[in-house]
Amino acid sequence: MVARVDGLTDNITLGAFSTASAGNLEIVVGKYLEPTNVGALGERVWQTYLGGNGDDNPYAKEQGPDGNLYITGQTSSTNFPLIGGGAFSGSSLNQQAQSGIDVFVLRINTEGNSIEAAVVGETERLTI
User: Is pLDDT of 4 > 90?
Assistant: First the structure.
């Protein structure tokens, strides 16, 4: 489950990548198990915030063959998280614009406690 929230939610799980909202419009990502019976409730495995100090909007998601969840969208955050948790190592691509809206692509591990992201933006608008 991927959603955008304006404000806070009380469904964030302990041990998730981020348990606190960092900005205005936040991304909330969660993993749920389907109910075993029709009409029964599903079970939340984990749920976390993603984003920075600006507005963050998810546009597409896909589960990869490695089990990780891949999400792309846009952000106006100047501090969008690039890498965190223990599942991924190395560095990440940070080409954020000095202002305006940037594009992000990130992956979050199956436990919901590690991310790796790339952010790309323009410093000027292109005119054609």
Answer: no
